[in-house]
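In this supplementary section we document a worked example of the pipeline. Step one takes a protein sequence of length 206 as its only input; no multiple sequence alignment statistics are reported here. Step two produces a three-dimensional model, which step three serialises into structure tokens for compact storage. The input and output of this example are shown verbatim.
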Amino acid sequence: MRPHGGRRRAPEAAALSFVLVAWQQAATRGVSPLVGFFPRSHHLDLARGRWAYTAAQPGRYSMVLTKFMVLGADLLHWYSCSPEIAAARAVVDRERNCEDILMNFVAAEEAGAGPVLVEAGSVRDWGDPRNDANAGDEERDAMRDVGMSSTGGTAHWEKRGECITEFHRLLGRMPLRYSRGKVVEAAVGEQGLCSKGGRLVRCDKE
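The serialised model returned by step three reads:
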């Protein structure tokens, strides 16, 4: 994340170490799902007959963004080289957008699981429109200066919904899977979530 007026923050070292450990633990179960800080979701818009791209819904999400994610080299190779998704990669190249959505398609397909969300500490998700209501003037200006989600407005979210719909059509299936909860560092008075049987549960119940 680039600085803006001295107020932008990169992930803290402790947060980076924690997300790497979370990914390493997930990787021990075979192909690791994506692990990241910034969640998004999708849902089927029945009225319009297409998929919609949204901010993380209460209690669930299905994607993490490439502004920060950890993934294995096997997924990167599959994304870059698999002939099965060549047509979907062409959509990314044409639109200059949606590479993160396609990566989430690939990871969910290969891992058979949704992504893992990790507590980001003090790092703010600037692309989430829900930040606008609580931001001061300087922060709102910063958000408008950063990323396609800030400059594209609702058209950006519409376009990404179109990408999900197009990827679904090209692949002939919908691999995205919902995940729930997030992994946090256990501290006094705070209970972390641990993975058990493919689900996140309170660590004291593991």
